[in-house]
Amino acid sequence: MTPFLPSPRPALLAAALALACAFGPAAAAPTPLPTGVQAGPCVEGICEYRLGNGLRVLLFPDASRPTVTVNLIYRVGSKQENYGETGMAHLLEHLLFKGTPTHRDIPGEMKKRGIGFNAETSLERTNYYASFPANDATLDWLLGLEADRMVHSDIARKDLDSEMTVVRNEMENGENSPAAALVERVRSTAYLWHRYGNSTIGARSDVEGVPIERLQAYYRAWYRPDNATLVLAGRFDPAATLGSIARRFGPIARPAEPMRSFYTVEPAQDGEREVTVRRVGDIRLLMAAYHIPAATHADAAALAVLEDVLGHVPGGRLHKALVETGLAASAGGGAEQMRDPGLFSAIAALPKDGDEAKARQALLDQLEQIARQPVTAAEVEAAQQRLRNGFELAYTNVSSVAMGLSDAVASGDWRLYFHQRDALDKVTAQDVNRVARDYLTANNRTFGRFVPSQTAQRAAIPAAPDAAVLLKDYVGKAAVAAGEHFDPTPANIQARTETVVIDTGGGRSLKLALLPKKTRGGTVSVTASFNFGNVDALKGREVAGSVAGALMMRGAQGLSREQIDQRFDALKTAARVGGSLQSARIDLTTRREQLADALSLAAQVLRTPTYPDAEFEQYRLQAITGMEASRQEPGSIAGLALAKHFDPWPAGHPLRALSLDESLAALKALKLADVRAFHRDFYGTAEGQISVVGDFDPVALKRQLQSLFADWRAPQAFAPIATSYTAVAAEQRRFETPDKPNGVLLARANLSLKDTDPDYPALVAANYILGGGTIKSRLGDRIRQRDGLSYGVGSDIDADTSRDGRDDAGNWSVEAIAAPENLDKVERAMREEIDRLLRDGVQADELRDAVSGLLTQREQARASDAAIAAGLAGNLFYGRTMQFSADFDAALKALTVDQVNAAIRKHLKPDQLSVYLAGDFAAAAKGGSPAKAPATGAASAAGDAGAGQ
């Protein structure tokens, strides 16, 4: 389940002593420990504890992070499902949001406390996670909820019945994706016996036919404290929190029945296997998968490096051999690291008229003929740097670490997260070439259908050591330095921010917002946007402008695309440099030590793009392939129809909406000279906004920003394109999309609305009540929770924003997915709920909870330095300060029921809604469904993305 945003008696002293012996010497811990709690190992700021009932607890306190993330991981997924039980772990994930005798409305209780929440089921774990601004009462309540639903969830027949169509709709949504369908078929062909071959979403017949008693038994078997790990990260007091955990979870008894064990071992593959999926669509995909060892095996690190050497974009071998040659529009892959042997996979997307035979041969040559061109030490070093950068950047965000530990826990031990990182540094080119030779062989390959060979050659997958043995004496590296305690209120952000205006001449200026503060790992977030162009100058050049911005990082003076990528990797910087019709943009996440060099490199990329011919053709091929792939997708078809109906611009206007064929024709007609000319004629940095938040020297930074950006004036002065409300007559349209088991509903009406209008806060609150959440809102309660028609439904209010406060092109919209045969019911339910909102209005308790949830969400957003940087840049552009945000918060707090109901009745006109439905209505009318085969989970090419709440 995935909402629109994010399972008891005291332990005996003897049990605690036994755990102490089992853990060995304990690391530093809050003292005194609660009764029955034993301390375990600590690694880099994370400490483990264990309750007498077997629950593992990982605490990662960080005072610099004003939020708390709670992640409860159960070691159960599709791997633990037997015959007739496929999809059961995922189905339980849904039902655990349905309630307990104590908590009857879990989504509602979460929402009114402003908790962002979600859940996910994968091959070998199910985890429930939540994040919220640090608050002891909220944390204690959430711990109580998780302890309660660990053992007291209803798992009732009525909830299963209502959720069945929701899960089925989630299946259908996955079935719309050619890639997801191919991944599922390849995985199920690669495994003969092991449950890794099962889709997480399960077989339709199992999900629809499961007896409630069997689901309840499955719940009791796996939702137990000795099968769970509780992770907490962020701003909390460790000693007090550990006491709360012991109080909430300690009374849960460890079941007398031992945990179920699985002993199936997948035999070595003894020949190529192939599978072909034939479905309606406009994109062709090739995929190869090979069995590899489990996460604790010594070869896991070398395989991770090999995956990066092959799959990295733009420097990877697959990209060079397939994409740069035009054989494929894109290519990539992944190497699984799981408890049991997984898959090393590669996938390529071909253009509509591509040469499949040549692409297949090129793909297999890169995978299975590495001996012809062995991996070099330089390639290994570059891959190691990229992988290290990923670890280091993730570790500056404790919430990311809390979530990142999930797979390590499922693989056997949370410390594998660090062990796998450390193992990367020891990998050599010899190791990488050896694992390629051992595992990437034709007889270990699944490409589709099975083809026997004359001689059997088996790639034997060696046994991996137990995680406890591997990590017996593991201590990790030094913990990353934490940042300061920063209060992200609008007032404090404004007080700590220095605003600088640099006069660049000709009536133009460069505005800076600088907020220096100590951060975890010395991180810095940079958002820069530069303005240029006007409506008359841009006419006829909109396609060139779009492509000019998209190709920015594919080559600069003295640097190829790959070299740009390598330079940013070496600087440990996540970077994006690009542009759109009237602006150029730089976004950086880096560290204090690398900030100056990263900014200089970004400026070089922005000012001197070379637009190589090969990269232009590669981008055009990718864009055309993507457009063609969307031609029969319900969402794309309905979305284009909506865009054309609501398009107010005349022919030739740079903002005019184009049809798919018009877009394709414009892209095919585009010349590289047009792209280069757009950069020459429009780009400049002397007018714009730059905001920087994090650990930096303001004096040195101001000097550098002026040097890099103040002297480059755009040839065309900037004048924003004004937008205004346009009345659009309502229309109703249906689109037939054959062989697409998931359908789409889109609805929209235009509003005259600015974000400075007095009614805007009231409309925001009203929309939050109507459809602000997939699960907990009036639309969610009705269409998903009660009627069970849709996996995802929501509404939105969009207000216009401008510098002069005149633009008022707002709109009100609703979106839902559902099986085609249910779309009419969804529309009917939507209209009934809107009519009820207008007729009866909102209630006091609804408004109270909505305001509380909105304020908490806004507070949560300000906990991110990148979000603060983006907000400060927006304030510079619109001439605002953080007082605007504070005033909006105050307006929300002051709302009354009468104000909200008056705003609803003034602005929301159901008879003005245009509604667009797209799906396979012909199949539905015949009483069938285009998705009779078992549906895919939301799996990636590596097969482990899982299915969410």
Automatic annotation (TrEMBL):
Does the keyword Signal feature in the UniProt annotation? Answer: yes
Region (Disordered), start-end ranges: 929-949
Query: Where does the record place the Peptidase M16 N-terminal domain?
Result: 57-203
**Which is one Pfam family of this protein?**
Peptidase_M16
Which keywords label this protein?
Signal
Residues of the Peptidase M16 C-terminal domain: 212-387, 670-853
Instruction: Give a yes or no for keyword Signal in this entry.
Output: yes
Gene3D superfamilies for this protein: Metalloenzyme, LuxS/M16 peptidase-like
Which InterPro entries does the protein's record reference? Metalloenz_LuxS/M16 (IPR011249), MPP/UQCRC_Complex (IPR050361), Pept_M16_N (IPR011765), Pept_M16_Zn_BS (IPR001431), Peptidase_M16_C (IPR007863)
**What SUPFAM superfamilies does UniProt report for this protein, alphabetically?**
LuxS/MPP-like metallohydrolase
Superkingdom is: Bacteria
**Which cofactors go with this protein?**
Zn(2+)
Stretch forming the signal peptide: 1-28
Q: Which PANTHER family match?
A: METALLOPROTEASE (PTHR11851), MITOCHONDRIAL-PROCESSING PEPTIDASE SUBUNIT ALPHA (PTHR11851:SF49)
Task: Spell out the family assignment given in the record's similarity comment.
Answer: Belongs to the peptidase M16 family.
The name this protein carries in UniProt is: Pitrilysin family protein
